[in-house]
């Protein structure tokens, strides 16, 4: 559903013109903001000699959920072929290990090594700093509100492996 554009009198500098209808769509604004924050976090990661996709994988594995490569691919929206290459890279770097799933010997469960846990802590600091800089434009409380709203939008849309 489209959001009503502000009138010319309400139009703030640096925001799209009132006669730019694409900006009337909340989904477009959400997509644009997501791309921009991803770009800024990716740049911050690169400056610290990290890769964003490595951070996403390691951070997803840092919790208690037992994730397979397929689960992880769904969680971070990576195609399965790219996921195999990423896990191979992380495993060769000593950050991730594969172990057989006792319930299904054909599948592997991924886990962080000690080096992987250390790396994700360092990456988390970089990600948090980049996010803080991106969201600094929001008045106090609005970032938390945005987080809650996005959480509500994503409820029941996460892969089952990470849900309660």
From TrEMBL:
Keywords from the UniProt entry: DNA-binding, Transcription, Transcription regulation
Organism annotation: Kitasatospora nipponensis
Entry keyword DNA-binding: yes
Matches recorded under SMART domains: HTH_MARR
Domain HTH marR-type: 23-155
SUPFAM superfamilies: Winged helix' DNA-binding domain (SSF46785)
Membrane-spanning residues: none
Matches recorded under PROSITE patterns: HTH_MARR_2
Keyword Translocase on entry: no
Phylogenetic lineage: Bacteria, Bacillati, Actinomycetota, Actinomycetes, Kitasatosporales
InterPro entries named among the record's database cross-references: HTH_MarR-typ, WH-like_DNA-bd_sf, WH_DNA-bd_sf
Name of the protein in its database record: MarR family transcriptional regulator
Pfam families: MarR_2
């Amino acid at each position: 559903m489209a959001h009503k554009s502000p009138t010319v009198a309400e139009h703030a500098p640096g925001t799209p013109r009132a006669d730019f209808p694409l900006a009337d769509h909340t989904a477009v604004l959400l997509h644009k903001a997501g791309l921009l924050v991803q770009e800024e976090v990716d740049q911050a990661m690169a400056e610290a000699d990290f890769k964003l996709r490595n951070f996403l994988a390691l951070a997803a594995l840092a919790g208690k959920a037992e994730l397979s490569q397929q689960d992880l691919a769904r969680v971070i929206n990576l195609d399965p072929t790219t996921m195999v290459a990423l896990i191979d890279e992380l495993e060769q770097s000593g950050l991730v290990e594969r172990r057989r799933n006792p319930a299904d010997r054909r599948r592997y469960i991924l886990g962080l090594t000690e080096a992987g846990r250390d790396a994700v802590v360092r990456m988390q600091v970089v990600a948090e700093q980049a996010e803080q800089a991106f969201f600094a434009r929001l008045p106090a409380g609005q970032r938390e509100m945005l987080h809650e709203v996005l959480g509500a939008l994503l409820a029941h849309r996460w892969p089952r492996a990470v849900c309660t």
